[in-house]
Amino acid sequence: MLRNLCVLFFTTFVLLALGCASSGGQTLKIDMQDVAGRQHVPDELTDMLGDLGYEWIPIHDPNARRDVKVVQQDGEYRMRFEYVQTKQVRIDARIRMQDGFTRLHFYEPGSQTLSVPAQGLLKKLQQRVVQEFGEANVTY
To answer: Is 9 a domain residue?
Structure first.
């Protein structure tokens, strides 16, 4: 009986650890509260990322039971973008509806690290986000 409990505890711990493991990449955070002239943040992100060569890709909306551009869930807008030219990089965007606080998670699917080309794309993204929203409002 004790052995079974130990095995169960260890299995649960491993599953939790795997679930909490980072998917690699880097997250940029944008505090929109002090951004002058802020519009509808999902549209602003779509325009900015489009200029950098990214296109939104559909994500599944569990409420609508279909793929959509923007999911509204748990007080957030959720979106996903992919670099069109190589399709090697994705950006998951989470925007808090209440105040527009935005997290952009930049990553290469299936990888825990960023390749050299992806690091170059990340640098361009960081520069553009600072240019668009102001250095004081961006952290990474």
So the answer is: no
Supply the pLDDT for residue 39: 81
46-102 pLDDT, tens digit per residue, is 999 999 999 999 999 988 899 999 999 999 999 999 999 999 999 999 999 999 999
How many domains is the chain partitioned into structurally? 1
**Of 37, 41, 79, 46, which Cα lies nearest the Cα of 61?**
79
- Residues spanned by the domain of 110: 24-139
CA 91 to chain centre: 5
Tell me the CA end-to-end span of the chain in Å, nearest whole number.
48
**CATH number for position 64:** 3.30.160.110
